[in-house]
Write a structure and sequence with these properties.
The protein is an alpha/beta fold. The chain has a single domain, classed as Rossmann fold (3-Layer(aba) Sandwich), CATH 3.40.50.2000. The protein contains 5 helices and 5 strands. The strands form 2 sheets. A 3-stranded parallel beta sheet has the order 3-4-5, sandwiched between helices. It has a two-stranded parallel ribbon with strand order 1-2. Helix 3 links the parallel strand 3 and strand 4. The chain is globular and about 35 Å long. The two termini are 20 Å apart.
């Protein structure tokens, strides 16, 4: 990972299926599926969370973990949290490019 950061991918069965047969970059950890309380505990220890508009996004925000929220197909004005320590990356009608997300995540991490 760039800058010595450790990335952890989380998800459920659908995400596991998406990962099947794909190369996972060196240094990226694929976490096991966790019950909600254990997942919340793990998220609470993260330096930051990068997430789409999903339940884990709302959980990370509720826990006060700095959160980069990716919005390509939903409305950040309705579902997002643009107050510090959180940041919204909106890319209307498309998924963000990895470099866009990296720049936004770096900005989020440099705030703290």
């Amino acid at each position: 990972m760039k800058a010595g950061r450790k990335a952890v991918l989380t998800g459920g069965p659908a995400e596991r299926e998406l990962l099947r047969g794909r190369a996972i970059p060196e240094g990226v950890v694929v976490a096991p599926e966790l019950p909600l309380r254990a997942f919340a505990a793990a998220v609470s220890h993260a330096r930051a969370v990068l997430t789409a508009d999903t339940g884990p996004m709302h959980l990370a925000v509720a826990l006060g973990v700095p959160t980069l929220q990716l919005f390509g197909h939903t409305e950040p004005w309705r579902f997002g949290y643009e107050r510090p320590p959180h940041l919204v990356l909106e890319t209307p009608g498309r998924h963000p490019e990895p470099d866009e997300a990296w720049v936004a995540l770096s900005a989020l991490l440099s705030r703290g």
